[in-house]
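Moderator note: this is an archived Q&A kept for reference. The question asked for a predicted structure of one protein chain; the sequence and the answer are reproduced below.
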Amino acid sequence: MAETKPTAPAAATKSASSAHAQPKKSSNLIATIAPIACIVLGYVIWRFVLGNPAEFTNPDPKGGFWPNHQGPKGAFNKMYEGGIVVPVLIANFLVVVTFVIERILTISKAAGKGNNAEFIRKVQFHLANKDVEKAIAECDKQRGSVGNVMKSGLRKYKEMISNTELTTEQKVLNIQKEVEEATALELPMLQKNLVFLSTIASVATLLGLFGTVLGMIRSFSKLGDEGGGEAARELSKGISEALYNTALGIGTSAVAIIMYNVFTTRIDEITYGIDESGFTLTQSFAANYK
């Protein structure tokens, strides 16, 4: 009669691993609230700060949603006459600022403390001395994504040391799988909300050009209706006001592109550290526990 190997321990290991790999439930309220809040704040800034009646020589007494103030006293208030696209562009800029701050805080936390290369070297040293507990203690000190992934792998590493049911190759595969599952939980947190920066990077310039085109249409329309030297003066004034839209759009897009590239570069560094930590664990186990 053929001998059958017991499968209960392996099944238990798989069950425990699956339970550990359940994705963390995390709310992303900022992604819902921030864009709406920025749109409202953008309108408030345009309507009540840039469009402050006291800063115009001929304020519109009717007020309303879009007052027709004329004769801005300062250069800052000339942006008001750029039209209704201006508050949308201001909102875009505020969204960029909001998510830049949010990503800085999140990625700084994910980077942890100290240098990742130095941290991995310390873990390698402890594993070479077969001291898994000190290696886990290093992960607690690191407090970042690399440390979190390494700690998950080290727990499985420690479990596999005492496992007598599996071969060395199977144990290494289990450690590798644990690292991959831990990585799958960490990476979405790093990349979350970058879509706002990448989208605004391209959309802001188009919105600025759209606002400029609307301003040019309005200016040339006045030129056609009035004619004469006064109309030419109004045309040049209108073109100047319309170009504020372009300036806002290009400026917002530039900030979004720069910060997006900064964040993706930082995320790549953390991802490289995570990959190196997984390689370290599997190679160490294969070398020390043949």
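Archived answer notes: The CA atoms of residues 12 and 82 lie 66 Å apart.
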